[in-house]
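#help-structures
NK: newbie question, is this the right format to request a structure? protein is MFS transporter
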Amino acid sequence: MAKKDPYAALRIKEFNIFLLVRFVLVFGWSMQFIVIEWQVYSLTKDPLSLGIIGLMEIIPAFTMALFAGHIVDQKEKRNLLALCIAAFSLISLGLFLLTWDTIVEGWATRTILYSIYGLVFFGGFLRSFFGPTIFSLVALIVPKKIYPNAATWNSSTWQMAGVLGPAFGGLSIGWIGVHWSLCIVFGLVLLSLIILFQIKRKPILNPKIGEPVIQSLKEGVRFVFKTKAILGAMTLDMVAVLFGGAIALLPVFAQDILEVGSEGFGVLRAAPAVGAFLTMLVTAYIPISKNAGMKLLAAIFGFGVCIIVFGLSSIFWVSLLALFFSGMTDGVSMVIRQTILQIKTPDHMRGRVSSVNSMFVGSSNELGAFESGITAKYMGAVVAVVFGGTMTLITVVTTGLVSPSFRKLDLTKDIEAHEKE
């Protein structure tokens, strides 16, 4: 049976192509993000500038999220993803040019900085489409009975790219510099676009094509708020990510506290993704759908503890282990959350539900980066990280106490129902 086959989703050719596209794209995207973080902090030496990067991305991503979900549910997914990747390649090209001494020679630091922020802002606009499109496309590639297995491999691929992208980015800064590192990113984005066209166009399953935008958006929001499992998972993760944003301050820790340079920065940035990836590989063999609610609460509580340890540490290997274990706990929560979303969401509403999820969770990454930047500027980086981890623990305990139905959440019956379809 599919649930006993840890490689069920990998036996589908188009799913493997999809994973390759996602790996190359996320590798380039995550590499680009930390290279830009490094460049911005090197230009300003101000932790608030790192928070502004997050703010510049969250504003368009959040404000466009619901509308993007409506568009995704109305359009063919493969071509829409291709359009998003093509537009993203323009951002990568722009960042490459902004770090070319021949072009920016004589530019004021503020002009370069604002130009980078402008491209990040455009990237936030695109990101509002990326999440819902990818979420919807994968559901059209694999049958419903193996959604949990596909969610595990999909998340594992994302994390693997998150391991290698930042690590390679940190190393490449030292090897070839920021400018040529961004050239590599541009090439990777174009490669992902070429590979994507090996996937066939998919049917549009929404029976309400041409539905008024307002009515469509209301339907999506109502569905999320009446489905307690989805709402609970989104809310819990949103607050944890919002206040547990230690990653945004890694350039500060790498340069000023741990003093490990760009290579150490790359290793630290990759550590959470290594932990998450290893955890996800295990979940392909050991399903975690039983008692999913308690497991999700425990995982996020463990994440908060790891963030506090990282914030208090001034020893490189202790910080590295703390980030590694934070990734392991985050890997568990990510698989559970993705399984909840895939199983509980109807096909014709995947774009809109994913968009609401991006407003809750995805945007909180950037908002968390901004919160961390402000807190670090006025209270110090260590206090900012410890405060965030503490708020995560409080959120988990509060959720567990006030929501007994979430504590009892079990996905086993839902998965069995899908397997019988």
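mod (FA): yep, format's fine, and the tokens are attached above. The mean pLDDT is 85.
NK: thank you!
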